[in-house]
Design brief:
Two copies of one chain form a homodimer.
Chain A lengths: L17 E2 L2 H10 L3 E7 L2 E7 L1 E4 L2 E7 L3 H4 L6 E14 L7 E12 L1 E2 L3 H15 L12 H5 L1 E7 L3 E6 L17 E9 L3 E2 L11 H4 L4
Antiparallel strand pairs in A: 1-10, 2-3, 2-6, 4-5, 5-9, 6-7, 6-11, 7-10, 8-9
Chain lengths: 215, 215
């Protein structure tokens, strides 16, 4: 299942942090709640933050047909999709060796607009389930008009790589004696108490996939 | 202090979410721990996740002279810098009206490599202080060799916009009667207990800007 390493996916800066196995790549894509898609608009780089869902070897990214930027993605646009999970701050004794612990994925490819109604419906369900596991089975799924107002683009995972940093800072030997606290400050994206829609029927409690939400 | 709205910074999709005042833009840039920089490498879009710090009307982004991608930024490269803060999931009764609450900033500009030693030093200090307030005053600051190994790029905030979504989902009128829980699930990036570097002198406690860390 590992993908061939291409010039673009080769991790050159800190090569020891590079990972090319699909299990690592998939786990990062599946945990991240959103991605950044870079493409060209009139020759200039543009970023679209949006949601994504992986389905096998394909990454679906969500758009709206009302969005000018997403219209630029339509016809086989070349894209770079980045997903970044921040795991903590790495505090060294020297400014230079400060870093972050993170897990990131970079996907390079060309968009394919999803037009087949069946695939589009499945992709829409995958996007909802990616955000809250099992939710697509409980909500009203899109009607024909809503599907028309949604653009979904598929990007192959054939050219993808991950980069992962973990662990303590690495200082210069002579800096270890400095009287500076050094270490990691882990950070975690944590759910807070759910807030019911003010128009919600008071008899409806939040389901377990919301009250016990975790990535 | 508000910046003129340009065609690129005009928020067209959900224009009610657009914000162009510098106070909103600055607060988002200052809270976010990292950014995504999009640029062109050999004609293709490429994203670099990296850290940033704002200093007045300038956004500094950090690079390494060892990084091939960052070398592409060097000579006045056109960039799009995106910063995204995820505040929560917006769970609607219909798949179509699911959304996220977020605060995001997009900056368009051209990089200026910081070469003046004084400005580079100040930018390095701003980058460290951006991550942990006041830390630049406690760590060993870079020597000449380390400064040479660091690339810092300045991007003007003249062309920037923010986009903010808050509040409950907006469903279609006829969907409000569906027996589906709807509302917000707030998410927050929370610091965990600090982990001391295994090589740290056991007598050194973590400072207050680490134990009481907040953005």
């Amino acid at each position: 299942m590992d993908e061939p390493v291409t010039p673009r996916t080769t991790v050159r800066r800190h090569p020891e942090r590079g990972a090319y196995d699909r299990a690592t790549i998939d786990a990062i894509l599946d945990e991240a709640l959103y991605c950044h898609v870079a493409t060209l608009v009139e020759g200039s780089p543009r970023i679209i933050p949006t949601i994504h869902a992986r389905s096998g070897d394909v990454l679906y990214v969500h758009g709206s047909t009302a969005s000018r930027t997403l219209r630029a993605l339509r016809d086989g646009a070349e894209v770079c999709v980045a997903v970044t999970l921040l795991d903590g701050l790495v505090l060294a004794r020297s400014a230079f060796n400060h870093s972050m612990n993170y897990r990131s994925v970079m996907v390079y490819g060309t968009t394919r607009e999803v037009t087949d109604p069946g695939e589009k419906w499945e992709a829409q369900a995958a996007l909802v389930d990616h955000v809250v596991h099992g939710r697509a089975g409980h909500v009203r799924m899109p009607d024909e008009q809503e599907l028309k107002q949604t653009s979904i683009f598929a990007v192959s995972l054939a050219e993808a790589s991950a980069k992962v940093r973990t662990g303590p800072p690495k200082d210069r030997d002579e800096d270890y004696g400095l009287p500076v606290w050094a270490g990691e400050l882990p950070l975690r994206l944590e759910p807070q108490d759910p807030i019911a829609d003010p128009r919600l029927d008071a008899g409806l409690p939040p389901p377990a996939n919301v009250t016990r939400y975790r990535r």
